[in-house]
Amino acid sequence: MTMKTRWHIFRKWAVQTARLCCGVPDYDVYVKHLREHHPERKVPTYPEFFRERQVARYKGTGGRCC
Amino acid sequence: MHNAASKPSPAARILWVAIAIVGAWCLGVVALRRGEPINAIWVVAASIAIFAIGYRFYGKFIEHSVLRMDPGRAPPSVLRNDGLDYVPTDKWVVFGHHFAAIAGAGPLVGPVLAAQMGYLPGTLWILFGVVFAGAVQDFMILAFSLRRDGRSLGHMLREELGPVPGVIAMFGVLVLMMIVLAVLALVVVKALTHSPWGTFTVACTIPIALLMGVYLRWFRPGRILEGSLLGLVLLLASIGYGAHVAASPLLAPIFDFDAKALAWLLIAYGFCASVLPVWLLLAPRDYLSTFLKIGTIALLALAIFLSAPTLQMPAVTTFVDGSGPVFQGHLFPFLFITIACGAVSGWHSIIASGTTPKLLANEGQARLVAYGGMLMEAFVAIMALIAAASLHPGVYFAMNAPGALIGTTVEQAASTISQWGFVVTPAELLQTAQNIGEHSILGRAGGAPTLAVGMAQLLHHLIPGTQLMAFWYHYAILFEALFILTTVDAGTRVGRFMIQEIAGLIHKPLQATDSWTGNLLATAICVGLWGYFLYQGAVDPLGGINTLWPLFGIANQMLAAIALMLATVVIVKLKRERYVWVPGIPAIWLIVCTITAGCEKLVGPISFTAAAQKYAASLRSDQLLAPAKSADDMQRIITNNEVDMALTAIFVLLIVTMFSFSLRALILAWRSNHPTAHEEPYVALASVTH
Q: Which residues of A touch B104 (CB under 8 A)?
């Protein structure tokens, strides 16, 4: 594995973790899921996806620890 | 499911024997060396060795023998994959997410307060508590949720114990949440009282968050990292500018508040923040605090490793006898109540049955995420303890003991604390205050300021410069205040939804979360509930933390006991009775601790009852007791103590009730000759993935 691909993998991991910590799951995974399982549904743009998730995060249940 | 391939190689065996020897040696030094101060690195090394052994051996034993985790079984993320909530995710990503969700202010506050008994009792409780209770609870609850479509703790309680105990436990959670929000908000109040610099920087987070909100909504939608970096730069600038605010005779009075005023401001702010759209204020602050939290924990670890401080606090102080100024009560049970998060925290059972089980791609990864994540949190608690114990004990007590005990001037404080055996001069106390850019360090209980001074001194060792120390102090205060306030806002919203759900049972339209009437009403009730306790803490004669932290500890450990009782019942329902001690012993330990602490708070010298009676007796003989300045004040203190009394009684009653329900379920399950747990049917992972 070259340095470049390693860095690339690390970067992807860091961004995915950081976003998940803020309640935003991986967009690419969601798009792939929609295409595979629900081809009839409209694929949201990233901003649309982000807004929907942002509101969903504070809907109740769980939250964070003290 | 033991697999033969996991037999350790000779090299691995040698490695683990070496870790065990090093760990035992370090722990021996920490526990046995008396008279001469030891270096913090001994504590760090002992902790790492114990965590490694706990994770490798006890964690693995639970994984294979008790829970029988099966990497070949399909988890909910695969079975119900919807690309959003249920997504099979890389294990390290889940680990990061889980850790960010469980690590809050708790592990930073409790250990600092417990340092009054010396560093040893707290260290031992954190190390052994986490391995045998805290991490076990998180792991088992996550595992159960994994086998039940990612169901929540409340749902599992209703299913496994019955509908009534399920409802009772959820009521307990709501009350616990109100206490958590109040006590955390009080930590912020204590840190910002008469501190224009701190208040200014914390106030600045509001416009900064609004700016970030707008940026993430319209300019660069969803670029969280970019927006957070922008916010971080502005935050650091505001800390820098805060020094000018504090020094300016014109600006300083604008940001100079007493505890009462700050409490009202926080209540008003909490109301607004949870009514406004989340993208505007709540979410951007959440992002900022999440990243700042991880960054600061890393910074603290770096500072401890590099500066390797000497622990100035004795291993064990005389305050183990219950006469301590920071919190009252004997080592047993109050040490185990004071350090909740970090050793065992009931709140985690809600997180472990929340989003995490919906993300795990494989049952084999549950130990890393739940058991490992909790060990990480325990390490944060150990670091907080080190930061507090590396302070001059005189400074530590000056900051954490209430003014009613040590007086309000540095001279009085220095002489009282010196009499306790921690020799300190007024000049030293003044100098510390000056170094961190504050007028006074007296009466700043609540953990945050102590940790901030500890951190500032550690970082100051690495990067010298007198100006910098004040910067680091206010950085640490800001970071704690920021994520506490985020918890308060988000918690108020969650509380609001819970209250709306209950209100909906009485009047259906109130349940609609988009109805403004229901929204405002429920938010007002929620803010009113925690606001009451916050205000009560702000005017408390002993500084508030003294009263509220034990209440919080009892409530949090009560939830942990409930979670562990559930685990015990489920293990018996699975007909694995011979492992019943794994969750059973910590469950009993927590029940004993919470009930003893609850009873001591109900009857006896340190009880709320005694405090109420003392004030009532003085009121009858027309005498005023400090800090009350009028008969009305006296009456309020009496009422507050009676409310705390009632609350403690509710907690004790709740735990006794839950214990009887669990015992009944346990006996029924024991007598049954087949498994009765409500697990979802087995689906092989290989049959659903391609």
A: 64-66
Low-confidence ranges of chain A (pLDDT < 70): 60-66
B272 near B285, Cβ under 8 Å?
no
Residue B283 contacts A, CB cutoff 8 Å: yes
| Tokens read off for B589 | 């330990």
Contacts of A53 in chain B (CB under 8 A): 84
Chain A nearest-CA residue for B170: A61
Q: Are the C-beta atoms of residues B85 and A62 closer than 8 Å to each other?
A: no
User: Cβ(B379)–Cβ(B47) under 8 Å?
Assistant: yes
Domain parsing of chain B, residue ranges: 4-194+257-671
Residue with tokens 């949870």: B274
CB B585 within 8 A of CB B179: no
**Contact in structure between B274 and B218 (CB atoms under 8 Å):** no
- Listed by start position, the domains of chain A span 3-52
Chain B nearest C-alpha distance from A33 (Å):
6
Q: Considering only the beta carbons, identify the residue of A54, A62, A65 that sits closest to B103.
A: A65
Give CATH for domain B4-194+257-671: 1.20.1740.10
Lowest mean pLDDT among B5-9, B329-333, B614-618, B645-649: B5-9
Q: Residue B417 pairs with which residues in a beta bridge?
A: none
Chain segment B158-214, per-residue pLDDT in tens: 999 999 998 888 888 888 889 989 998 999 998 999 999 999 999 999 999 999 999
- Taking each helix axis from N to C end, the angle separating B331-338 and B545-573, rounded to the nearest 10 degrees, works out to 90
Which B-chain residues 44-83 have CB contacts (< 8 A) with chain A? 81-83
Q: Which two tokens stand for residue B279?
A: 């993208």
Q: What is the DSSP letter of B367?
A: I
In terms of CA atoms, which chain A residue is nearest residue B358?
A25
- Cα B140 from Cα B567, distance rounded (Å): 7
Instruction: State pLDDT tens for residues B481-498.
Output: 988 888 888 888 888 888
Residues in chain B, total: 690
In a mutational test of the B interface, the residue from A27, A29, A42, A66 whose CB has the highest number of chain B CBs within 10 Å is A66
A62 and B286: CB-CB below 8 Å? no
Q: How far is CA B502 from the centre of its chain?
A: 27
Interface of B with A in 498-557 (CB under 8 A): 498, 513, 552, 556
The confidence band for B690, taking pLDDT boundaries of 50, 70 and 90, is low
